[in-house]
Each structure stands twice: as structure tokens, then as C-alpha cells.
Design goal:
Elements lengths: L27 E2 L7 E7 L9 E6 L4 E6 L11 E4 L2 E12 L3 E10 L4 E7 L3 E2 L5 E2 L12 E8 L6 E7 L5 E12 L2 E12 L6 E7 L4 E6 L3 E6 L10 E4 L7 E8 L4 E7 L4 E6 L5 E5 L9 E4 L11 E6 L3 E6 L8
Antiparallel strand pairs: 1-25, 2-3, 3-4, 4-5, 6-7, 7-8, 8-9, 8-10, 11-12, 12-13, 13-14, 15-16, 16-17, 17-18, 19-20, 20-21, 21-22, 23-24, 24-25
């Protein structure tokens, strides 16, 4: 991610048509990470949503997974340090450990160790015996260096999968999908699928999954947002592509906001310092927003109320100043 010399503390975002967009100020700006903030994930506390946690990666050789409360303060005893370039992160609920206990899990890539990691949340207990190796058959330079990750929970089988992207790869089969399972010997990750086209123009990092409808979206950064079936049995044909004409250059972070009657795909228009909003069903472009962030790599969203602090849900986005912005979701006016 290229660092910018800022003349002001916040960027002036310009839409793809050249018009300056009004800034929607964040409700909370987190404390700083040490190195390079990258991608967030939201854990909703089932007992008290006001005590939910925002996790965020700090992408560096001596990186970390930071845990923040809803005031943006670091929760040190939930923060994992000493990681080798953690990149993207995702979270899922209801993973069965030993076919008995259910737990929420976070998965994140640890690029320099060429693995992805798996932790129980909120205890932050590792489940992976040090990590799962990925892309072991790669032939391209940096083809075994994991970057993006998303967790998919099948609505039909309740199986949970990790879908992993990388720094470089083939024109087809760029993504690998791993089935997660547990038995008396531990938690396992089995490669079950290789899929996904790649333009070769830059890389694929941001991945998001719509569990209910069974689709996975990923950013082919200088080409477009690609859509595939997330269920392995549905095949590997591309379903749709959102073209790069909607973006200034790099297409980055992805987040899916689901309401009862409508869904939205939120995509970082990285070099314009804005976000493009699309209808989740039709993929029609709706609008572009300036949320004050610079060069956003990753984002996440929930439409669930998180106490009095975020009664309408929250949108979390990475900012290129070693921090993350939290916006009350109503400020994005998705449903208007």
C-alpha cells in the first residue's frame, strides 16, 4: 500500500466523475497500531452487543491482530502480537470443536509463514497448532504467499470453509477453498477446491462471502469485483463481474450489509479514497461515499445494533494512518 503525504489530517475525496464528495465524519477513530493497519472483522457479543469487539490486522513482519472496544481503545488481553505479516481477517459463528462445543472463530493469513491461522473468539485461543499451509502446489513467484481470506458457512450443510487468496497466481484457480473440521486430534483444514479467474493486472486480496445466498465476491484489483458460487458443489463458473469503470484504480476492501428486504455490497475505491455502493442482488451501482479514510484496504459491516454507541449497526474501515474508522451505519444512508 503506497503511503501518501497528506496536507491535511483527512483526505479530500473525489468521485470518479471528478466531483468532490462531502465527507461523512466517523463516530470513532481507533487508537493507532504500530505498523500498518489493513483489514477489520466484527465480533458481536451475544450477551451484550455493546461489549462487541472490532479486530484489525497490523500488516508487518512483527505484526499483530489488534482488538478494539467500541470506543476504539485497544483491548490488550485480546490482542495477538508477534505475527509474521498478518494480512486479512474474517470471522464466523458456530464452529463445532470436537462435535460438541460451539465457538466463534477468526481466521487470518500470516503471509511470511505461508499459512492461515484460526483462533477461538473471544477467548483468543489458537485452534490451528501453529497454522495451515496453503498453496503448496504454487509455481508462480509469491504464489504461495496468502493475503485475502473469508469464511463461508454453508446454509445447507453448516460446514465452514476458509477461502484464501494470494499475492500472485494462475489465470484460473487463483483462490483455494479449505473445509474446516474438528475431531479428537484437533482442528483440520482440507483443500476441497481451486477456483477463480485472475486478470494478472495486480493481485487479489479482498474477499467477502454472502452466506445466506451462497456467493463469494473478490476484488481483482485493477479489473473488477468477481462473483462466484461459494458452495463447492455449485461449480467454478464465474457468475458476474462488476467492471472497473466504477473505480479510479485499485479495487480493495469488500463488505456486505444485509437487511431483511435488501442487501448492499460496499467496495473501497482505494485511490479515490471513497466507497462505491452496489445493490447486492442486481450489482447495480447506487452511489459513492467519502467516509474520510485514505487508501482503504479493508472494511467490515454489521446491520445489528451494538448498544447505544451504534444503535443502527456499524461500518468499520481501515485508514492509512495506522488506525480504523467506525461509522454508525445510518450515516451511510444505504436504504434511502
Amino acid at each position: 500500500m503506497k503511503k501518501l503525504l497528506l496536507l491535511t489530517t483527512l483526505a479530500i475525496a473525489v468521485s470518479s466523475c471528478g466531483k468532490k464528495l462531502p465527507e461523512i465524519a466517523p463516530d470513532v477513530i481507533t487508537e493507532h497500531t504500530l505498523h500498518d493497519s489493513d483489514d477489520p472483522a466484527i465480533w458481536i457479543n451475544p450477551n451484550d452487543a455493546s461489549k462487541s469487539i472490532i479486530f484489525g490486522t497490523d500488516k508487518n513482519t512483527e505484526g499483530a491482530i489488534y482488538a478494539f472496544n467500541l470506543d476504539g481503545k485497544v483491548i490488550e488481553d485480546k490482542t495477538v502480537r508477534g505475527l509474521k505479516r498478518p494480512n486479512n481477517i474474517d470471522l464466523e459463528y458456530g464452529f463445532k470443536v470436537n462435535d460438541s462445543t460451539e465457538t466463534a472463530i477468526i481466521a487470518f493469513t500470516e503471509r511470511e509463514r505461508k499459512v492461515f491461522r484460526l483462533y477461538a473468539v473471544p477467548e483468543m485461543i489458537p485452534l490451528d497448532n501453529g497454522g495451515y499451509s496453503v498453496f503448496e502446489n504454487a509455481v508462480e513467484e509469491e504464489g504461495d504467499s496468502p493475503m485475502g481470506i473469508a469464511l463461508y458457512k454453508s446454509a445447507t450443510s453448516n460446514k465452514i470453509y476458509a477461502i484464501v487468496g494470494r499475492k500472485n497466481g494462475p489465470a484460473d484457480g487463483y483462490l483455494h477453498q479449505y473445509e474446516l473440521s474438528s475431531d479428537s486430534l484437533g482442528v483440520h483444514a482440507k483443500l476441497v477446491r481451486e477456483f477463480g479467474k485472475f486478470s494478472g493486472k495486480k493481485e487479489i486480496e479482498a474477499i467477502a462471502v454472502d452466506n445466506e445466498n451462497g456467493f463469494v465476491y473478490y476484488s481483482d484489483e485493477m479489473h473488477g469485483v468477481r462473483k462466484y458460487h461459494a458452495e463447492p458443489s455449485k461449480g467454478n463458473e464465474e457468475v458476474a463481474t462488476i467492471g472497473g469503470e466504477h473505480f479510479e484504480r485499485d479495487i480493495e476492501g469488500l463488505a456486505i450489509a444485509k437487511y431483511e428486504d435488501r442487501g448492499f455490497l460496499i467496495v473501497s475505491n482505494q485511490q479515490a479514497h471513497t466507497f462505491n455502493i452496489f445493490d447486492l442482488d442486481t450489482l447495480a451501482f447506487i452511489k459513492e461515499l467519502n467516509l474520510g479514510t485514505v487508501e482503504t484496504d479493508g472494511c467490515d459491516v454489521t446491520t445489528m445494533a451494538l448498544g447505544d454507541k451504534f444503535p443502527n449497526g456499524v461500518f468499520v474501515s481501515m485508514n492509512d494512518d495506522k488506525n480504523f474508522f467506525f461509522h454508525d451505519l445510518a450515516k451511510l444512508k444505504l436504504t434511502e
